[in-house]
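ok so I'm stuck.
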Amino acid sequence: MRLAVLGAGAVGRSVVELAGEYGHEVVAVADSSSAAIGANGAEPLDADTVLQRKEAEGVVGDADPDDALTAEYDALIEATPTTLGDAEPGFDHCETALQRDRDVVLANKGPVAERYADLRALEANSAGTVRFEATVGGAIPAICTIEDYGADTVEAVRGVLNGTANFVLTRMAAEGLGYEHVLAEAQDLGVAEADPSFDVDGTDAALKCVILANVLTGGEPEFSLDDAEVEGIRNVPGSALELATEEGQTVRLIGEATRDTVRVGPRLVPENGPLAVTGTRNIVQLDTGHAGRLNISGRGAGGPETATAVLADVGRLE
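replied:
not stuck anymore, here's the structure
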């Protein structure tokens, strides 16, 4: 398939780099200030040239970013940063592609977490299809597993869905260190952003759980971030982790989605249980009506990891 990639962060760059291995051609790439467009809007770009220019000059090309939306692509890859509320400009990008009867594959959580019903309405009036595996759990195939089993047969989804928060809690428990000390360590290692609020306050995990809830309900009822009960990890004391360890337990930031509620917060879990993943790993746990409890664990973030989920979705469109 011919791909247009919007967003040249870690995920977008990895999609550009890996697309050829999956048998696809990238005909357009845009970052926030520039775009590279193939000849006639349809010819494949050279991935190395685009990525080297981004590295050296901070831009991917000489065209306007909006020009990527009018290129001759089969699927739009929406990998711009997640925004809350109206989910713009990501939602507008999806709308433009669907109005052109193109497929859309999202790594951007905003449109499916904040405007799920609107997005599905656009899809219903288009020959294009929307897919968004990469919005939840990086490389973990959470959404397609729910689809394969049937959303009606899945009773609840829970898990550890943010690597930064999990790294902090893991280090606090293992070393007996305080939150601020471990957070600074995580920032030095590049595991946490300079402003870690999105991760440590539970917002990122909540968005993912909102998406999962919308998959379970089909958008009826529709969930958004405003419907989620969210508590982060800033106020988890080291003493709580010490006490948990004495009882054979530990603390993890657990998100849970059902057809009725979305909740995220620190929870006690068995120290040797499946939810006690360590470091930056994620886990998604599905409670199903017929197959029992399923646990899917893996890398929940990262450019190449998340790009594999994007490209797997592209493959499902063929």
